[in-house]
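Q: My labmate handed me this sequence with no annotations at all. I'd like to see what the chain might look like in three dimensions before we decide whether it's worth expressing. Could you predict it?
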Amino acid sequence: MRVEVDPEVNDRGLRYAYVRVEGVDPGADASELVDRVTARLRERFDLDDLKDDPIVRAYRDYLWSIDVDPTKVRPAGEALLRRALRGNFPRINAVVDSYNLASAEYRVPISCFDADKLTGDLIIRPAENGEVMVDIAGERMELDDRFVVVADEDGPVSVSPYRDARRTAVTDETERVLLLAHGVPGVEVEHLVEALKTAVRYLREGAGAESASRIITP
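A: Here is what I predict for the chain of 218 residues:
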């Protein structure tokens, strides 16, 4: 499975990194990992100062640029970090919890697709006017070319960098995943790579991941 990036997406300053992870167990117990990492995040970050963090600022600025209000629809990494700092980090399953910890720590949105639900290769491209995606919450999103989507042969599986599709979501039966870190202007590719390295480490520890590919920056 390959991930290609349309040149127009590169022209918009968006960058990506991805990794395939095998042998994950959504039913594992990630509680100790969640408790340890969220405690460390509370020592490192202050909730009142998050808006001034340069990584948080970069994602907020990008959302403003596409007419999405980041105070209402917060970038995923920031939203997860805020919940960690408030002591109510969301618990879904061991796979989601593990990579969400890395997303919060690096303030980077990370998509996680059930690899067995993807059809063909992925392309990251501008959305087509009128294109539709049903998001993780089951809400229908009608898109236009302001947005960038990650799409397989059956259509969008993510609106970059903040919303994923329901049809490729991790479930209790998931065994193989593709993680994709989304970068915006002001966020270096190296930061995305470090976020994914940490996500893989947490998936090994919290969700029993057996192996991972090398991290690729398309």
